[in-house]
Amino acid sequence: MLFAIIIGGLIGYQFGRFPGFIMGAVAGVLVLNFLKSRLRKGLQDIQSGFLDSMFAVMGALCKADGVVTRDEIDVAEALFDKFRLSGSQRESAKAAFELGKTEGFDLDAELANFRRVSRGQPALLQMFLQVQVSAVAADGKIHPKEHEMLVRIARGLGLPEAQVEQLEAMLRGTHTGAGPGGATTTQQLDDAYKVLGVSPEASDTDLKRAYRKQMSENHPDKLAGRGLPESMREMAEQKTRDITHAYDVIKDARK
After folding, report:
1. pLDDT tens, 180-215?
2. Residue ranges per structural domain of the chain
3. Helices (H), 102-219
4. pLDDT tens digits, residue range 213-241?
5. Who has the most CB within 10 Å: 30, 48, 175, 178?
């Protein structure tokens, strides 16, 4: 605020001395407030678009195998509670979910719309995809047709297929325990490398760099500043824990 007053005042002073300084300072404050309001509106648009598109795409995804089961509906409704949606948000989410289930739903157009609303921010697009993976894999499994649909969703968001594999690996990591005697299994180690997006041949330095990059990109505060709804903060925090777990699994295996 003070910076805007000073800059506006100095510019005004060049044209009208002291009266110009006053007018310039006032203009600086008005411009700053205008920019702040535009920023708030932009974040609100992203948050609203995130939830509506998320449940619409979820409806289409749940119908990927030809039928939407009661269990899949229960998962969607459980997310209403998980994300602490208000009454009006719940109604909007239900309507979006039903729309996604309809025969004429244009999945590609909805994905393109979300890319536009989110301004193509990779971290938000990845979180959007993560919700879809979580929705169809509440039982810890992802069926082939669901995987195909997830790949289509990833491509529609402009994300590589590897993102789907990374999230599926992350999901398996939360559903499986250690092997006999607490040992890490081959599957867990392979999944850990996929979560961090590096190959088993990566050096310790590259591994640490990948870990830090993932943690930075997925930091809940940073995502919130880009438009992630506050109600989804818990999921963002869980993702950072999963990333850290994958890093720890690899470090332990390399000792």
Report:
1. 344 568 888 998 998 898 999 999 999 999 999 988
2. 2-254
3. 107-117, 122-136, 144-156, 161-175, 186-196, 204-217
4. 988 888 888 877 766 667 667 777 888 88
5. 48
